[in-house]
Amino acid sequence: MSPLPLSISSQPCKNMSGELCSMRPLFGGAISTVFPQRFEDVSDIRQVPDHQEVFVDPSRDESLIFELLDFKTEVGDIGSASWFLNDLAREQDAEGFQLIEQSEVIETTGLSYRNIPAVATTAIGEMAISKGRQGREAQNLVRVYVANLRLKGVDTDVLVTTYEPILINPLSESADAVGSGLAVPASQSGKMPMCDVIKQSLSTFKVNDWNLFGSSA
């Protein structure tokens, strides 16, 4: 799941599935990226922490999250996305966590700041997690894609995370929206698979205003 060369376009586009995508502003427009229009901004519904941007497709129980974190100096570049993926599993009290794939370190020249290079790694895992405050008896099996963009020039770790359900527990609140059992593959629903959603968001990720990162910039 290596990020593609960084490029940018402000025009809506259609992907291979025919799904309409568009440029989306993040963090007040300081960052922008492209992903399918079916993803709704969660901040229109409930409060989201200032360091996060969260988007969901309720009809498929899929989510896309952008997060700005202080740079983790104790975490090496090699396997950084895997480290964050493991951390997510711990935070969500996941069961059966399995790391499926991780990438090598990739330099992202389009995100360098003051000639200080930025790098990226990606990882894919599967885990059983519950929605909200539900207990383990309502866990769903999900595939999680994580990309870690390390903006060293501004001491920031950017996390891009997507969640894709594999098996919905009948006791989960997700079952009310999408039904229980095996999730219908995106390709069968005319939707862009989450592996491609995160690839697209990475390949079009752009910092428009480095002042977002405060004194570090």
Automatic annotation (TrEMBL):
A Pfam family the protein falls into: Mog1
Domain of life: Eukaryota
Keyword Transport (UniProt): yes
Protein transport as UniProt keyword: yes
Alphabetically ordered keywords of this record: Protein transport, Transport
Family: Belongs to the MOG1 family.
Entry protein name: Probable ran guanine nucleotide release factor isoform X1
Gene field: LOC104707055
